[in-house]
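dumping this here before i forget
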Amino acid sequence: MSDSPALAAADEPVAASAPARRFGIVGAVLVGVSAVLGILAFTVLQWYRGDEDGIGGSFRSTFGEVHHHVDYLRGQFDALGAGKYVYFGVSPVYFGWLAWLLLAVAVGAAVAALVPLGPYTGPMRGTAAIVALAGFGVTLWAIDLYTYDSRFAAITQAAGDQAPSFGSFLGHTGIGAWAALAAFLLIGVGAILGPRRG
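structure:
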């Protein structure tokens, strides 16, 4: 029996190499479809429907028109001296520019998560999923266009005017809001799929 290092190495089982990873096509298709869905949500689809009290109503409620409607409402409340009692939350910036930024960053991060980056692949997938989840959460928050200060709400309620609630806004959402929520959710799923094996 030979003690040659070469022969000893030849007798050892060959370690299985890790399967090569390639760009995630399935995830890319999902992210691409989601991006188109997001663009449609932010351009042509209606965000609100229903009555005429500023929740949705007869005004056309595409994304851009909701932005103008929020600006109009802010001006109206300010003109009545009630501006300091009404909170618009994130809706003015969301319907202005934030939604587009969130969509762009989520799509970019998701595409990067589909590229095999060795040890950086896992963290990139996590980052992309977090960005998409943030987009989903901020979209849900923005649906609640405005709310009243508790004192102002009591006054308006006494006058027969029902204070708006998140439930009332959510109940009047149209296909645009749901398309945006679905887009961010599916972008996150596409990112989590990551690069494909082999």
